[in-house]
Structure formats: C-alpha cells, structure tokens
Design brief:
The complex is a heterodimer of chains A (about 1000) and B (about 425). Helix content of chain A is about 70%, strand content about 0%. With about 1000 residues, chain A is mainly alpha-helical. In chain A, the strands form 2 sheets. Chain A has a 3-stranded antiparallel β-sheet with strand order 3-5-4. In chain A, helix 6 (about 90-115) runs parallel beside helix 8 and helix 37 packs antiparallel against helix 38 (about 745-755). Chain A starts with a helix and ends with a helix. Chain B has about 425 residues and is mainly α. Chain B contains 22 helices and 3 strands. Chain B has a 3-stranded antiparallel β-sheet. In chain B, strand 2 and strand 3 form a beta hairpin. The longest helix of chain B has 30 residues, at about 395-425. The chains are: A mainly alpha (about 1000), B mainly alpha (about 425). At the A-B interface, helix 29, helix 41, strand 4, helix 42 and helix 44 of A face helix 19, strand 1 and helix 22 of B. Strand 4 (about 825-830) of chain A pairs parallel with strand 1 (about 340-345) of chain B.
Chain lengths: ~1000, ~425
C-alpha cells in the first residue's frame, strides 16, 4: 500500500484513477516543486502520509471491513484473522487457550535461545509442534498461526547465527552440539516442507506487518487501499512495545510542526545507528519511509530516500543469499522515485564526494553554480540491484513461474539503469557512466533478436497496462496474441533465449488476463506493483542498443569494463551470425593473451564468447574455425564449469565448501545458458569432418597429427563396444555418422547427423543442414579417395559425381586439391575425363620400413639435440656435424633451445607441441613394433615411453649435471639406430627389421620405465 | 567496371596532391562522367594553393571566363602569404645556399642551431618559416622546390614529430616530381623511422603504415625493382596486419605484384592464405583469380576472372602499365597448375583455356618445352600434350633416408665416442 502510494506520488497525476491518490500526488507535486518549504504543501503531504499509516489500524479495528483485493488471498495464510472471527464465534475461547499455549512455548524457546541451550530448545520445539497440531484441530484453519511461523523463522535465524559463530560452537557441550545438529536438520526439513515453506517466505518478506500493529493512531482514513494485510495478524502477538513507542514520538507529531532540523536529526540518528548491533533494521526502514514524506524540501527528501535504499539493502540477509523479490521491488520503487525527483529538479546533483549533510541544520542553499549537492551514489545502488537480481535468478528454479515472473522485472531494471545512465550523462559524470552502461550491455548482449523484440513489446505492454491507458490496451491485446505466437516460435528457435522469450510471452498473457480483474494484480506480483516508467523505451534493435552503450564504455570505461564490453560485443555479433567481425574484434583486442589475468567472471564471459563464436562459425560452415574455437572448451572436459552452467560432477577432485560456494555464486542464470547439446554436437561434428579424412589419409603414418583428442577418445570407446545399439545420445549419433563417413557413405552420415534433435534449436536450421550435407559429401569424397584409391587403376569423374551427388566442378576441385597436396597419387586424363592413378603404393614392408626410418631419424635428432646440450654449445654441434643431416639436426637443436628458453617465462608454450610430437612418435613406436605381436599393451607402453620422453627432455632443459645417468640412455639409443640401419640396408631384410626393432624396443621401454621411477 | 575501381578508396589514404594523377588518369579513361571528375579536381584543389590551376579547370568546366569571387579572394590571400613567407625565409635561404655553411653542419642538430644562431643570427622563427615555406611551395605544386627546401630544413628540425612530417613531405614531393630514386630513398628512411618510433600509439602506427603503403604505390609501380620491394614491404608482418585491418584493397596490388614477379613464387602460398582469409572483406577479379586457381582449382573460373582482370587492370592507374605482363604471367600460372594435375591434355581445350588460338597455343607449349620449363611431349596426331611423369619409387626414398641416417649417426657417434676422450 505504501509503495502504491509512493508511485502515485511520484508520477504525474494524469494517470491517477483513485481520488485520494490524486490528492496525494498533487500535494507531493507541490512540496517538491517548492523546495523552499511551502508550509501548506508539506502539511498536506504529511497529512496524506498519516492517512496511509492509519489505514492499518482502522482496518484492524474494524473487523467488518469489506474484504477485497489482497485480503482474500491472505485469509488462507492467517488462520485466525479478525475478519474470520464472526464466523467461528463458538470456538473462540478454546482457540484462545490454544494460542496462549503456543505463545507461551514460543516465549520459553526464546528464553532458551538466549542462554543457547539447544537441548532444551529441541524439546520445546517438539512440544510446540504438538501444540500446533492441537490448535489446528480447534481452529480448523488451513494455514499456520503467525506466532508459530514467526517462531520458526526466529529459530532458523538464530540457528544460522549459531552455526556461523565458530567459537560458540566450540564451546558447546557435546550434548548441546548434538542437539544443535538435530535441530538444524529438523528445522531445515520442517521449514522447507510444503506446509510451512510458503508461510515462512511470506513472513520473511513482510515481517513488518507485525510491527506496524504497534502504531496506534487515532486518525481514521477515507482512503481504502489494499492495506488489509496489516489488519490480519494475531491479537495475541505480544512484542516489547517500548522501542516502537519511542519512535512514535515523531510519528504522532503534527506534520506541520516537524521542522527541517528535526528530520535531519532523526536521519543522522538513523545513519549513525546503522549497522550497529541491536538496531532494528525493520524499524529504521519504517522510520525512513515516514521521514521521506515529512522531509522539508527536495534535497532532504532525496537524502532520506537514499538512506532508505541503503537501509532496505540492509534488510537482505547477506552476500550468499539473494534479496527477497518483494524487498527488491521496494528498492526499485524508491530508486525510481529518486530518479523522478532528480529529473524534476535539475539543480540537484547527486555526488558521492559532496559533503555529508551532518553539519547542516537548515536547508542547503544552492551553490554558486546554482546546484545543490547531495551526497549519494546511485551507481552503487544500481549495481547492487543488478547483482541481487542476478543472484535471485541463479537460485530460483528456472522451470517455475517464479523464474519467469522474476524475468519480467528486467524491463523495470533496464528502465532504471537507463534513467541513471541518462542522468549521469546529463551531469557529465564520465567516471560512473560506463559502469551503468556496462550493466545495461550485460543485459542485452545475450539476447537474440526475437528475445529482444519480445522484451521490447513486454516493456510497452507493461507500461500501458500499469497506467491503464485503455485505448492502447486493445491494440496491445492483439499484439499479445501475435507476440505469443512469435515468442513461442522464438523459444523453439533459440535455446539460450527460450526461457526469456517464453517468459515474455507468459507475461504478456498474464498481463492481458490480469487486466480484466485489476484487483488481483497486486498479490500476483508480490504485493508490490512495479510499473515501467512511461518515458522509457528500448532501442529498436539490440544491435543499436549495444552499439550506443559500447561506445560509451570504450570512450570512458576502465580496462575491465572495456574488456567486458568487448567480449559482450563479440558474443552479440557471434550470436547474430557476424562471425568475421566478431573474430576480428577478438583478435585485434588481444583479449586472448591476457584473459588469464582477468577476474573469473570475465574469464567466464570470455569462454561464453568463445563458445558462441564457435557456434557462429559452425553455422556458417567454417568447420576448422568452429573446431578451433570449441575444441579447447569441449576438450577440457570441464565445459560446464568453464561456461558456469552447472557444477561439475567431478569424482576425482573434491572441493572445499568455500570453493563450491564461490562456484555457485558464479553460475549463469538459466536464461543466459548456451545449449550444451548444441555445443557438443557442433564440436564433435567439426572434429569428425576434420578427423575422418585425416585418419583415412594416413592410417599407418608415424607423424599422425591428432586433431581432436576427445574425438579420438570417444571413437575408441565406441569401437570397443561389443554391441552397438541405435544411436541415442549426441555422441552415439555422431559416432554412427563417423562410421558411415569412414566408409565414404555420406548419406548414412547425413542421416545420423540430421537425426539429432538439437538442430531444432538452431535458428537457421535448413541452411545449417544444407551446409552439413555439403560438407559431409566433400569429406566423404576425400575419405573415399584416401581409403580406396589404391584399389583403382582409374576413376571416372562422372562416376564420382553420381556417387557423391556433387557437381562436376566441385569434384574436380577437390580431387585437384588432393593431387596438388600429393594426397592422391594420380592425375587427370583430360580427354577421357578420368583420374589415372599412379600406383606407387608401397607394400606393407616398405611402408613399415619407411616408418622405421622416420623413427630412427627422430631418435638421431633427439640424440643430436642431447649431445648439443651436453657439450654446451649448439654451434659446436653445427661445426662437427659435417653432413647435411648433422647441420639440420643442429638447427633443430637450436630451435629446441629457443623454445626452452622461452619456456622459462612462457610456461612451455613452445615446448608443448614439441614434446607432444616426440611423445607421439615414441608412443607409436610401442604400438607398431611391440604391439604388433602382443596385441594390446603396446599403447600403454607407448604412452609411458612418451611420458618418459617428456620427462627426459625437460630434464635436458633444466640442465641437470648428472652425466652418468644421461650417458647411459644415449648410448642405448644410439644403438638401435645402427640396428635399424642394418635391417633397412639389407635388401629383403625388411621382414627381420620389424621384429628386430620390436624386440629391441620393448626392453628400451622397460628401461625407461625403470629410470622413470 | 566502376565497381572494382579503387580510386575513391585509395584517395582516403593519399595526399591531396598524390590523388591528382589518379584523377587525371580517370579522366583519360573516361570511366566516370568528365564533369564529375573536374568538379572533384576543383574540390581537391580548393585546399591547396594551386589557385590558378583551379581557375583553369573551372573555366573549362563551365565554359566561361568568369571565375567565382571566392577563388579570386583565395588567390590574393595565397599571393600575400607567399610574399610574407618569402620575406621571412629569405635570410635563411641565403645562408643555406652557401655551401660552406652546409659543410659546417654536423649530425648534432642542437649544434647546427647554435651554429646558425651565432654565425648568422638565424633563430627558430626563421627556421620555422623555412618549414612553412616548404609546405607552402608544396601546396602550390612547386614540388621540386619543396623537396629542396625540406632537404635543407631537415638538419635543423628538432622535434621528432616535425621530423616525421618532413619525411612525409619529402616522399610526396619526390614522388610528384617523378624523382623515383630519391623517393625510394625517402620511402626507405620513412619506413625506418616509422618502425622505430616508439612514441606513437599503436593506432597511429597502424594509420601511418597504411599511408606509407598507399604512398609507396606511386613509387613502387614506377621503378625497376619496385615490385620486389612492394612484395617485401607488404609481406612484413606489421604491414600485413595493417593491410588486413585497415586496407584490404591493397591485396590487389600485392597479388598483381606476385603474379608478375616470377621469382617470388615462394610467397604465393602466404598470399593465398591472406586472400582467403580476407575474402569476406575484399575481393576483386585479381584476388578471385588467384583464389580460383589455387584454392578451388577451378580453371574455368580462373579463365573467366582473367578476362575480368583485363579490364580492371586497364582502369587501374598503377597497374595499367603491367597489363600484358600480368596476363602473360597469369596464363602461365594457369597452364603450370593445369599441367601439374594432368597427365594428358587436349590442345584444343588448352588453347581455349589460355585464350589463344590453337596454333599459337601449340607454339607456346613447344616453346615452354624447349626452354625446359615443362616436362612434356606433344602428341600431334591426337592433338594432346602428354606430361612426363616424375615418380620416385619407395625404394629410392628409403635408401635416401637410410643414407642420411647413416651419415648423421656416424658423425654423432664420432662426436660422442671421440669427443669426450679428447676433452677429458
């Protein structure tokens, strides 16, 4: 009711319907317009205020007051409200008895709480529950008595406090601690059970209802707003009235008598007591609300309001919990009022460097520039509100209506931020302006066009609805229908925005419905109506909005703001399919170089941008780009954490509760999520398209380049399956496609891939599928040629065209490319339109011998490097190694040193690939030679060898002076080279070469392992 | 054709005076409406001191002898300024024309200033006037004079920013006087100072690099070894990134230079990569030609693009001189690539591809074979060219590898076994 009143006061009176409100607002106008305290104006304003205060009392006294609006709904929760009494007169005495019992028990519990006696509390709590049961039987009420709920809440708070207080916990006796734990569990269960959860939350949102009862005032009111809530509370509720009485001194005063000084004094009192122990925050808020109405002059009013926002923030329970929605809305309303006041009085400047008001006793006079400075920091408030909204969205279950309702508050927040932003622009505060702009950007960047439009329409609808401009309403109604359809469509189209869009649709629907019964909207919206200011309008398109805001951040923002704005822009561009400019922005800003130095939330944003960039590339058919964008995210196996879209179910790492809490705090709200499934499909399909032809091109090659490790891993597991069922998961589908693609069967692959349901989430579904089909055909052709070209003597172009359903030009182009790259040993015979193969395909022995030679070369290279390191100078090696090979080795050695040098600072960035290569080579060795006969095991040993190799070379880099240890392996390594040479140079001895190498390699691997341990 | 015409893009990065030859050229070619060009010229001249010239154009354009009053005003203004500058600059010019004075100059600029001050009572004002005068002369179109004045001013300028503008001025003046040798030198020096200047912000450096590349077009396309220098300059990482960020259209000139320059085939791969990477930002027939040929292996497309290239080159101020050279090289490109992936080619087809008649094509191929640039034979009966195959057997390559290994291992073994003994 109070909030309702405020908004009425703060807005122009045209919208007013209610007569009394109109009166109020006009008096507000007067008082604000004449800042030099026109007595009549302030008089009337305080009058109207006392009206509103008295509402509660008048209703509580008057039990026959007609029930309407919110009252009907609250009847359920407050079982024995006065208004019900007349119906159950017979039961009254019994009921009273039960309730006094309840209250007594509660008081007892409170006493025990004071001495921290948990075992006693536990017993009393049981008793309390029993009594409640009895009371219920008597009163037949559906709901829970307020005393009881209050007790529960108090208990819970106390419990939390006790738990937080470690010292206290330590001091407790064991029985006491045990009781505490039992209580904790029980209370938790109890308070979250369906029966009580609602009542508890309701109580937490509106605890002040109890307190207001104390304010006894004689004036009766004519206005009848929805203040019935206050009337419905327990008569039996007893509170120490002393504190309340004291503050009432000012409240009971005639508003005309209240002077500037008095208000200032009271305000100062509140400010100084803020944050102290034992201060009743609730009471402060109330007092401030009152003060805001009696304040003399606009600047003072602003001061009070600003303080009020701060006090409202104090009410919220701390950093880990989110601010209750109702409280948040109240904050918003106060903020909006502040902004309206600022808008109306251009001479007032809010400034956090202005002198605090403490010294002043009279109204501040305008400075020489005609400005009145008032202390205050709007930006901090906006940021806090944004954070709280974010937090609440994190916690609320995204599949509930509550979540959607929360999302519907976004336009109001946007409106407020926009107002603050405009205000800052007006006063030329370039330091804070980008902060607000960034907040706005972060509300816009993840919205697709459809979602943005829905949001825009929602804004308009809310405006028109709340201000009851009926003429527009019909038009909007029609629009709603349209928009609902649209939003439904967009929900299907955009995974990320689905929720937002759906909620927008739901909202408009709700708005349309509720507007038929205007009485009910208050309750539906947590009793606080939050209208979107009329003078707010969103930009036509999100791109325009982004551009405008980003410009501000780039010109004035600090480094972090710039980086974030840049990342948001990249995300936004990628989302809108503008991959190239998004990529260019990313590359030019060099964000990827220093993102590791930024805070975690920016890193998450970076990851999100990266993922979105990958998806954009994928949609455009830029497969390798998409792969390189997504690979790192997906391949890490921690994609959920990287995108802050859920906690990892890590079996191996255990996190401390603090870490877990921190991580929880980082989570993205559901409506901002990027679809995991889509990411997975895109990444794996890209990997498949790149990997399958690569695998086909060199099935036995030593220098096999693994493009995607995770893909290989999945493929291996898939191949090991004894029985392959029809595909179910994304992975299954893609693996099935991979199988088909490996055979060159593009249509099978396409069938498997296009069966993925995830494509429904892609806005340009058709074009993406077409692109995929084309890519699959091309890669299938390449794979086919790689795998089976050896079987052909010649291949006709036309046949290839029909096989892969591609046009001649495309086939020609692909085949030519392969010929140039020497992937395909053949050439075109132009007159006959055929590919003629030059079958220089090596025999198995030859290719194995070739591999062996390659491996030997690698060893020699390693040896040369090692030697070069040992002798210290690389140049020496260069001089000594007279042959061409020696020189080359020397140069490579130099490279090595280069990289190692870099490795000290840059953490082995250069070293990575090199070691990888070495490892791969040796690992392969194990598999090819050792593994040839012994089936499995080769891989494992190879791996170990690889591991050794990496350890070995890092040993070299660190330059340990242990000569003996090192000379050993070198010699041994030099030997196999000889042996290998022997086996190769002997013509026909190739067969012997294989096993020879194998038998050698095994002890070598073992040897290494020993040393490794 | 105007769609591939780059003048307007180039003009953004060029000096007013450097734009002028482009406009003249366009006027000759008649790509645009002549009156438009004349108007553009007047607009261009408006901010220079070449008032008389502007007047002439005006007369020609509107077929009158009337000249707008603004032009007349401007003229008197210019003349007045000339007089005053002349007066201010006289002493220093007099003194600098004395070769003895110049001989006394040293590399130390402070010393030079001191020297002038003491000996001739020439202070900073005069020196500043000298610079202004040079600028004025340049604006008047008196480029050689400007160049000389700047040369004289150079040992006297103290701030590095001023030094930069002097270098820019020198480059422009030398280019416009078609003294390309001096211009090349100025270009080199400018580039050096650009790369060495540490005070500029990255953005400014980028901007200046872009300018430099544009200005250098005038020089490079008019000098003997220019194409090589152009390739060198443009492929420098710093300049390449300037191209990709700021001026993708320069890829045309780089591509043309690479195509024409047979010795620089090695950079082709790099070029193709950049072209591909930037194809969404910029593409014209020349880059498309390379793309067709080396990315898509689409010879018909390449052929098509080559025809388009012809007219593009014809209408490009810088490239028009190398048109035939370009076409010839491009043709060779096509043919070479074609040969690499074919073992048997119909001459009829080939002649069509190469845009030649059959006889000429045959002759052309025969020439290539003769000059040992093509390993092929002509089968005149079937009317085909049969490529010679160069296949290396697996055996050979293995033997080669083994040989290499043995040499390397031997040296290594020698070093390991022999060296410690000698060292210890």
């Amino acid at each position: 009711m109070a909030s309702r009143f405020w908004t009425a006061g703060s807005d122009s009176d045209e919208e007013e319907v209610d007569a009394s409100e109109e009166e109020n607002s006009s008096s507000e106008e007067e008082s604000s317009s004449s800042s030099s305290s026109s007595s009549s104006g302030s008089d009337s304003s305080s009058d109207s205020d006392s009206d509103s205060d008295s509402d509660s009392d008048s209703d509580s006294d008057d039990s026959d007051a007609p029930k309407k609006g919110a009252a009907r709904f609250l009847a359920g929760s407050d079982s024995d409200s006065d208004s019900d009494e007349d119906r159950r007169v017979v039961l009254k005495s019994a009921k009273d008895k039960r309730f006094s019992e309840l209250t007594d028990t509660c008081d007892e519990i409170r006493n025990k709480m004071k001495i921290n006696d948990w075992s006693a509390i536990q017993g009393l709590f049981d008793e309390l529950n029993k009594r409640l049961e009895r009371a219920r039987k008597v009163s037949e009420a559906v709901g829970t008595p307020r005393v009881y709920v209050r007790m529960c809440v108090e208990l819970e708070d106390f419990l939390n406090d006790t738990l937080a207080n470690k010292d206290l916990k330590k001091k407790m006796s064991s029985t006491n601690a045990k009781a505490l734990n039992t209580m904790r569990q029980r209370l938790k269960k109890h308070n979250t059970s369906d029966e009580f959860a609602e009542a508890v939350t309701k109580f937490r949102e509106n605890p002040q209802e109890d307190e207001e009862e104390e304010e006894e005032e004689e004036e009766s009111s004519s206005s009848s707003s929805e203040s019935d809530t206050d009337g419905e509370r327990e008569e039996t509720e007893k509170r120490p009235a002393g504190a309340a009485k004291k503050k009432d001194k000012l409240l009971t005063m005639d508003s005309a008598e209240i002077t500037y000084e008095m208000v200032a004094k009271k305000l100062r009192e509140i400010v100084t007591s803020r944050g102290r122990k034992g201060t009743d925050k609730q009471e402060q808020v109330e007092m401030l609300q009152f003060l805001a109405n009696v304040a003399k002059g606009v600047p003072q009013k602003l001061e009070v309001l600003l303080q009020l926002v701060g006090s409202l923030f104090d009410l919220s329970p701390g950093i880990s919990n989110y601010m209750k929605v109702g409280l948040w809305k109240r904050c918003m309303l106060v903020m909006l009022e502040i902004m309206d006041t600022l808008q109306a009085n251009e001479a007032i400047v809010l400034d956090d460097s202005a002198e605090p008001s403490e010294e002043r006793t009279a109204e501040p006079v305008a400075g020489e520039d005609g400005k009145v400075r008032v202390w205050g920091n709007l930006v901090a408030f906006v940021e806090r509100l944004d954070d709280e909204m974010f937090k609440s969205l994190q916690v609320i279950d995204p599949h509930t209506h509550e979540y959607m309702a929360r999302l519907r508050d976004e336009p109001v927040f946007l409106a407020l931020s926009q107002k603050v932003h405009d205000y800052l622009a007006r006063i030329g505060d370039v330091r804070n302006q980008p902060k607000v702009a960034l907040r706005l950007i972060e509300h816009f960047y993840y919205k697709t066009d459809a979602v943005y439009d829905a949001m825009r329409k929602l804004t308009m609808l809310q405006q028109h609805f709340y201000y009851k401009t009926d003429a527009v309403y019909d038009a909007m109604r029609k629009l709603t229908m349209l928009q609902q359809e649209e939003a439904a469509a967009s929900a299907a189209a955009h995974p990320e925005g689905a929720v937002a869009a759906a909620s927008a649709a739901a909202e408009t629907a709700a708005a349309a419905n509720t507007s038929n019964e205007p009485g009910e909207e208050q309750t539906a919206d947590d009793k606080v109506a939050l209208p979107v200011p009329l003078d707010f309008s969103m930009d036509e398109s999100s791109t325009a909005a982004m551009k405008r805001l980003v410009g501000i951040v780039f010109t004035h923002g600090d480094e972090r703001a710039k980086a974030r704005a840049m990342l948001c822009t990249i995300y936004h561009k990628a989302l809108h399919g503008d991959f190239h400019s998004a990529r260019d922005m990313l590359l030019m800003s060099h964000l990827q170089d220093n993102v590791m130095l930024m805070d975690i939330s920016t890193q998450i944003l970076y990851n999100r941008s990266m993922a979105q960039l990958g998806l954009a590339a994928f949609r455009l058919g830029l497969i390798s780009e998409a792969h390189s964008c997504l690979q790192e995210l997906y391949g890490s196996g921690h994609i959920k954490e990287l995108l802050a879209q859920g906690m990892a179910m890590g079996k191996f790492q255990d996190k401390t509760p603090e870490q877990e809490l921190l991580e929880k705090r980082r989570q993205m709200p559901f409506h901002m999520h990027i679809s995991m499934e889509l990411l997975e499909s895109s990444c794996l399909i890209s990997a498949m398209l790149l990997e399958v032809p690569a695998m086909a091109s060199s099935p036995l090659s030593v220098k096999k380049r693994v493009i995607s490790k995770s893909f290989h891993r999945i493929l291996d597991t898939y191949n090991r399956q004894t029985f392959t069922g029809p595909p179910e998961t994304v992975r299954d589908h893609i693996m099935a496609a991979t199988r088909a693609l490996m055979r060159g069967d593009w249509s099978g692959a396409y069938g498997a891939v296009s069966a993925l349901t995830v494509w429904q989430l892609v806005p340009q579904r058709e074009s993406v599928l077409d692109m995929l089909k084309k890519q699959l055909k091309e890669e299938a052709l390449r794979t086919y040629l790689f795998s089976y070209s050896a079987q052909y003597r010649s291949l006709s172009l036309d046949q290839l065209c029909t096989m892969f359903e591609m046009d001649e030009k495309a086939v020609y182009s692909i085949v030519s490319k392969m010929m140039i790259a020497e992937d395909l040993h053949g050439s075109w015979d132009q007159p006959t339109r055929t590919i003629v193969m030059h079958s220089i395909e090596a025999t198995k022995v030859q290719s194995l011998a070739g591999q062996f030679a390659d491996k030997a070369t690698l060893m020699v290279e390693l040896n040369e490097r090692a030697y070069a390191f040992r002798t210290g100078g690389l140049r020496d090696d260069d001089d000594m190694g007279g042959g061409g090979g020696g020189r080359r080795g020397g140069r490579r050695g130099q490279d090595g040193q280069w990289e190692d040098d870099g490795g000290h600072g840059g953490r082995g960035r250069g070293r990575g690939p090199r070691l990888g290569a070495a490892r791969m080579g040796l690992g392969q060795g194990g598999q090819d030679f050792g593994g040839h006969r012994r089936g499995g095991g080769g891989g494992g040993r190879g791996d170990r060898g690889g591991f050794r190799a990496s350890g070995f070379s890092s040993n070299m880099t660190s330059g340990l002076p242990d000569r003996f240890q090192r000379r050993g392996p070198y010699r041994q390594q030099a030997n196999p080279n000889m042996q290998a040479l022997g086996s190769i140079s002997r013509p026909g001895g190739g067969v012997g070469g294989g096993p020879g190498g194998g038998s050698y390699n095994r002890p070598l691997g073992g040897d290494r392992r020993d040393r490794g341990l | 054709m105007a769609s591939y015409e780059l003048s307007s893009t180039l003009a953004r990065f060029l000096d007013k005076h450097l734009c002028f030859p482009l406009l003249e050229f366009l006027q000759d070619k008649g790509v645009y409406n002549e009156e438009d060009i004349m108007r553009a010229k007047i607009a261009l001249l408006q901010n220079t001191n070449m008032v008389d010239f502007a007047m002439d154009i005006h007369k020609e354009l509107y077929q009158t002898d009337e000249v707008p009053a603004t032009m007349m005003e401007r003229r008197t203004e210019v003349v007045n300024r000339l007089r005053s500058l002349q007066k201010a600059v006289d002493p220093i010019i007099g003194c600098l024309s004395n070769s003895n004075v110049i001989r006394n100059f040293r590399h130390d600029r402070a010393f030079n200033l001191q020297f002038l001050k003491e000996e001739f009572d020439i202070g900073p004002e005069q020196i500043e006037a000298l610079y202004q005068f040079a600028k004025f002369q340049f604006d008047c179109g008196n480029y050689s004079m400007a160049s000389e004045l700047l040369q004289a001013y150079k040992p006297l300028c103290t701030t590095s920013e001023r030094n930069m503008s002097v270098q820019w001025g020198k480059l422009a003046a030398d280019t416009l006087t078609q003294n390309y040798e001096a211009a090349t030198e100025a270009l080199l020096r400018l580039r050096e100072s650009l790369d060495n200047q540490s005070f500029a912000t990255p953005l400014m450096q980028l901007q200046q690099r872009t300018w430099l590349m544009h200005w250098s077009l005038h020089v490079f396309w008019n000098t003997e070894n220019g194409k090589n220098a152009l390739i060198d300059l443009f492929l420098q990482p710093a300049y390449m990134s300037a191209i990709t960020i700021n001026a993708q259209h320069l890829l045309r000139y780089l591509a043309a230079a690479v195509v024409v320059n047979r010795k620089r085939r090695n950079v082709l791969r790099e070029l193709i990569k950049v072209i591909q990477q930037e194809s969404y930002e910029y593409s014209d027939p020349i880059t498309q030609f390379l793309e067709c040929l080396f990315v898509h292996y689409d010879f018909d497309g390449a052929q098509q693009k080559l025809i388009e290239c012809e007219s593009v080159i014809e209408h490009d101020y810088f490239l028009t001189a190398i048109k035939s050279e370009f076409l010839e090289s491009a043709r060779l490109f096509i043919f070479e690539t074609y040969c690499r992936i074919h073992q048997c080619i119909n001459i009829d087809m080939l002649s069509e591809r190469l845009n030649m008649d059959k006889e000429a094509a045959e002759k052309w191929i025969a020439n290539l074979i003769l000059s040992a640039r093509l390993n092929a034979k002509i089968d005149s009966k079937a009317g085909t060219v049969v490529m010679g195959m160069q296949s290396s057997s697996m055996q050979e390559s293995l033997a080669e590898k083994a040989k290499q290994l043995s040499v390397r291992t031997f040296t290594l073994a020698n070093a390991v076994v022999g060296a410690p003994a000698t060292k210890a």
